[in-house]
Design goal:
6-stranded mixed sheet; Glutaredoxin; 34% helix; 2 domains; globular; 5 helices; alpha/beta
Length: 195
């Protein structure tokens, strides 16, 4: 009887531990990062290519963030749906004090394979600061008149691909006649605080 009681206690403890672990994982996957508050107009000091009259998309990525793989997959789908409609940049934030090729990860190679996307090494996160980005995967879209149209993420949760409000909003804003500015939560690793 004593062995049965110990077994039952152990079994219940195991079930509780698994439930707590799954809850923590669920909360982590579905907890958005810090939302950016990018400028309402294209930042004047930005070194990124921006042509008047042409919408511009900027995605900021931590090169070692596994969550950002899904963001890049969604960007690939978005670019396929909007060929030749906008200028697109992916910035890989590189904090000070890391090795010279620190940002040259599989995420860099994946972004390089997306047609129509320019890659930029954002040394010391200077451009990320201009766009107030704090979370990997942060995406901003400015219209041809330099006005902010969209700010947020283009995944529904950390590391999850598929239909999501961010990609839908960008498609709607760039394929219809205008629309009001929109934002969505962004899911990814922190761009602030080093490596």
């Amino acid at each position: 009887m004593r062995r049965g009681l110990v077994g039952a206690v152990f079994g219940m403890s195991w079930v509780v531990a698994v439930a707590v672990g799954l809850t923590v994982l669920w909360d982590y996957e579905n907890a958005p990062g810090i939302a950016a508050e990018p400028p309402a107009h294209w930042p004047a000091g930005s070194a990124l290519r921006h042509i008047p009259g042409v919408p511009t998309l900027v995605m900021l990525v931590h090169p070692h963030c596994p969550c950002s793989r899904a963001s890049l997959e969604e960007l690939d789908r978005l670019m396929a749906d909007l060929p030749s409609v906008l200028i697109a940049h992916v910035l890989f934030v590189k904090p000070p004090g890391v090795p010279a090729d620190w940002e040259q990860t599989d995420l860099w190679r994946r972004a390089a394979s997306i047609p129509g996307v320019s890659l930029t090494r954002d040394a010391d996160g200077v451009e990320a600061q201009r766009f107030d980005a704090a979370t990997s995967g942060q995406t901003v879209v400015y219209d041809g008149d330099d006005r902010l149209l969209f700010s947020g993420g283009i995944t529904a949760a950390r590391g999850h691909e598929g239909d999501n409000p961010g990609r839908t909003a960008i498609l709607s804003l760039l394929t219809s006649t205008g629309g009001e500015r929109r934002s969505t939560p962004v899911f990814g690793c922190s761009l602030r605080g080093g490596v």
